[in-house]
Amino acid sequence: MFDVAVIGGSFAGLTAALQLGRASRSVLVIDAGAPRNRTSPGAHGAAGWDGRPPAEILARFRADLAAYPTVALRAGTAEDVSGGPDGFEVRLAGGDRVAARRILLAHGQRDVLPPIPGVAEAWGRRVLHCPYCHGYEVKGAPLAVLALHPTAAHQALMLRADWSDRVTLYGAGPEGLDIAALEAAGVLADPRGVEAVRADDAGADLFLTGGGTARVGALFLAPRATLEGSPAARLGCAADEGPMGRFLRVGPMGQTSLPGVFAAGDLARPMPNINFALADGAQSGVACHASLLFPGFVPPLEIAA
């Protein structure tokens, strides 16, 4: 039996494993090999790694963990978790089972992209979600925002303020979108939808309803995020509704509503960010260790809180 099974081997999960490995605790990191930012050519805003490919950073993380003999990495998908503290069982795709005293969920979320041809292929390169993560690289270019959700207004106003003076919001948008306020701030509102995207190294061509086209540096959109089908959803951890989807409710030590289950990273925050994932991973890893040493020291989060 492992002391901790970490489900998800990206920034949060590997950071948590590092804390536990340095305490000489037995840890198994189970990773499906599909980090959320895998399509991005560079991870920006992370000090010391700004612009480095996410895969390169994660490879370095895994190399660091190799120095700790109590930490093991296993490729695979966790399909279910059952049991309780000191007796959890993780069932993997293929039927193998792993026993652990504690569970640390760090598998992130899945982005649900709109079914527009070319969007998935350009996701993370010319179809983007976060000005902080990607805005500087397209600064000054004409930018587009697709009005899928009220968050689109927020994106458009941010981009217009500090990244480009040529920002166009495409689509009629959700009910209640204040087009007049956007236009007063300098955002051009175009009711035409985007039917297809063709991206290249210099930008993206948008194919609009009615036959028009537009050339932009990037198209920003806010996809829905989902925990559907994840171990977190099947466990029944308490969750909250964020701007883009549900995320797990956690306490100050990363504890969930279930005893012995902790969570870190994108699945436990309404806003994804590498820096947040690193901090969450360190906190939840330390909390897992504390709960092993002092049962009851980290109580589960009360659902009614």
TrEMBL record:
User: Superkingdom of the source?
Assistant: Bacteria
This chain's protein is named Thioredoxin reductase
Q: Name one GO molecular function term.
A: oxidoreductase activity
| Coiled-coil spans in chain | none
Can you give the residue ranges of the FAD/NAD(P)-binding domain?
2-275
Q: What are the UniProt keywords, alphabetically?
A: Flavoprotein, Oxidoreductase
